[in-house]
Amino acid sequence: MPNNLEITKTAIEDFKEIQEYMMLAKEEGAEKTYAKLRLKYLSLKALLAVSGVNLTDIDYMKE
């Protein structure tokens, strides 16, 4: 069973990856894809915030 540090590390990696995909979707005008990714982004952002992760440096979408 993963510990809190492993869960947080995975969430940070997923958060960064989702933002990269969001930027690509935005560039390509893929509105439905962007909207779906944004939901995942917001969920991960909430999880990280509750975990006490400072999002200042890793949240470049700022949504």
Task: Give a verbal description of the structure.
The protein is mostly helical. It has 2 helices and no strands. The mean pLDDT is 94.
What's the helix and strand layout?
Blueprint: H1 4-28, H2 31-50
Task: Find the count of extended strands (DSSP E, 2+ residues).
Answer: 0
Shape: elongated
Structural class: mainly alpha
Separation, N- and C-terminal Cα atoms: 32 Å
Instruction: Point out poorly predicted stretches.
Output: none
Main sheet characteristics: none
Q: How much helicity do the residues have?
A: over 70%
- The whole-angstrom Rg is 12 Å
Q: Please trace the helix and strand order, writing H or E for each element.
A: HH
Q: Tally the helices.
A: 2
Mean pLDDT: 94
Q: Proportion of β residues?
A: under 5%
Quick gist of this model?
By secondary structure, the chain is mostly helical. It has helices at residues 4-28, 31-50.
Which descriptors apply to this entry?
63 residues, single chain, mainly alpha, 0% strand, 2 helices
